[in-house]
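Bump. Still looking for Ubiquinol-cytochrome c reductase iron-sulfur subunit structure tokens.
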Amino acid sequence: MKRRPFLVGATVVAGGVGAAFTAVPFIASWQPSARARAAGAPVEVDVDKLEPGQQLTVEWRGKPVWVLRRTPSILERLATLTDSGRLRDPLAEVATQQPAYITGPLRSLEEEYLVVVAICTHLGCVPLFRPEPGSVGDDWPGGYFCPCHGSRFDFAGRVFKAVPAPINLEVPPYRFLSDHQIEIGVDPKPTTS
Ligand code: FES
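Sorry for the wait, here they are.
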């Protein structure tokens, strides 16, 4: 007679364990987002809470992508750099590194926001966010510093001369869904005139 409570208890535990084991494959198949992301599904980013000078990182196609909100002072420094002779490709002329609709030295759809793949074009390390001028040498204007072999990029993802990385960081396809919604992985809709 005393076995009954034990059997009930054992059944509940076994049921619980069984439920846990069966739930894992169910959840894995029920959440396609990770697989879809790796396969290239677009990623929406809300930049509403991004303060000037801040950046966030999202994952797209298994790669980190930065969205940086550039300040007026960053934009001024980028303009100075364009004509400084310090950059390898200041006007972003290497066509593989950005979609055709991203033109000009700021390498963006809206000058306030940089969207760039956070993978060094030398051997694939993730560079560091180093916004403070002078923090990576006296002439450092703020930008991205790769800790692996010292490549440097500005806040348009443009590579400096005399570093191992040969070309600018990649700008992925993206579009604005609203003033503060960016969709990465999708080209802008063609405008009709
Ligand atoms: S991987 Fe960045 S400098 Fe080598």
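Residues 17 and 23 are 10 Å apart (CA to CA).

Edit: fixed formatting.
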